[in-house]
Amino acid sequence: MDAITTQKKLNSEEIFAILKGFITEVIGEEFVEDMDISRESSFTRDLEMDSIEIVSFSEKVKAHFGEHIDFTGWLSGMDLDQLINLTLDHIIKYIESCQSSK
Amino acid sequence: MPVIKVNNRSVHIQEFNKGARETVLLVHGMFSNLSVYYFNIAPILAQHFHVLMYDMKSHGMSEKCPDGYDLDSMSDDLFDLMNAMHLKSVYLAGYSFGGLVALKTAMRYPERVKKLAIIEAPDPNDDETRGIMEIYSKEFLVDYINNYTDTTRMRMGKRQLDKNHKMYEYLFNETSIKADMNNERSFFASPFIDQIPHDTLLIYGKDSNCLSSGRKLYHRIPRSKLVLIEGDHNVPIQQPAETGQRLKDFFTGWQIKIKQINHRLWHALRL
C-alpha cells in the first residue's frame, strides 16, 4: 500500500481512509480494534503512538504521497506541543493544501 | 521502513538529503531510538548534510540481539554500518549512551570521524545509570516515565507502558546489557580519551545530572568545546532547534571558514 505514489487528487475522506490504514499497519490491528479513530484523534493522546511509530507513519505518508508533499519538513517546523497535539485532521488538511497547490 | 542487513542482522535506518556530499551520522541513547533526531534535529542538519540515523540493536525497529552491548561491540556496529553504507568518514554525533559509543568510535577509528559531537554522555561509573538496571521493575518504569514526561511533556498510555516494559524486560533479563555496562565502569579512566584528535563539541543541559561528566570530558579532550543549553539530560527533546543548530554550526564551521578564505582570495585575485 505504501509503495504507490498517488497521482490523482484525493478528497479528505479518501485521505482519511489511507491514513487510517497506515495507523493500523503501524500499531497493529489488535490495538486499532479497540480504538475509535476519527479525524480529531491525536497521535500521542488518543492513538497512544510513540515517536518511533510516528516515524514509521511518516515514512508511509512520504512513500504514498511522494514528492508532492514535504511531510518531514512540515513536521520539523512544529514545536513539541504542536507535535503532541497533532491530529489526523491537521495532516489531512496539509495533504489537501499540497494537492491544491500542485 | 528502510531496513538494511549489517553482519546478517536487520538494522533500521533513516536518511535525509541523500545527495549531499558529506554525512552526519547520529547515534541515539540507550532505551531510545532514532526518533530522538528524526523530527527536528536531523532536518536542520539535512540543510547541509546527508543525515544517517539508525536504531541500535534491540532498540526501535532494529533486530533484537542477546549480546554485544559493551562499547567495543557498539562501536563495531557503527563501524560496520558505515562500511555497509560505503561511508569513508562522517561527522559523528551521539546522545547519552550513544555519545559514549561515538566517543569510543572516534578513539578506535579516528580516521573515520571528521568531527565529533557528544550530547549528554554520562560517566559509566556513575551509580545512577547502573542503578536503573539493578532495581528495574514495572513500578520503577512508571516512576521513570513520570519523571521523563514531566520534563519533556510527552505522555505515555497503557499500550506504550507495556511496550516499554517489554523492551526493558528483554534488555535487562535476556541480554548481556547489565554485565556489559558494568564492565565499562572505568571507561572515563581510559588514557585514549586524552588523545582524541578531533574537534569535539560537548553539549550538556545546564540542569543535567550528567553535567559533571561533560566537564570531565572537556578537561580531557584536547580540542573540545563545552556548550550548555537550558534543560536537563533530555536537552535534545527539550531544545531540539538549538541542539540541531549548534550541531550544524559546529559541523559546517571549517567549511564556512574555507569558503570565506576562498571568497577573499578570489576577490584579491580580481583586484
From TrEMBL, chain A:
Domain of life from the UniProt record: Bacteria
UniProt protein name: Acyl carrier protein
Automatic annotation (TrEMBL), chain B:
InterPro entries found in the cross-reference section: AB_hydrolase_1, AB_hydrolase_fold, AB_hydrolase_sf
Keyword Lipid biosynthesis: no
GO molecular function, one term: hydrolase activity
Gene3D superfamilies: alpha/beta hydrolase
Keywords: Hydrolase
PANTHER family linked: MONOACYLGLYCEROL LIPASE
Protein name as it appears in the record: Alpha/beta fold hydrolase
Source organism (scientific name): Chitinophaga tropicalis
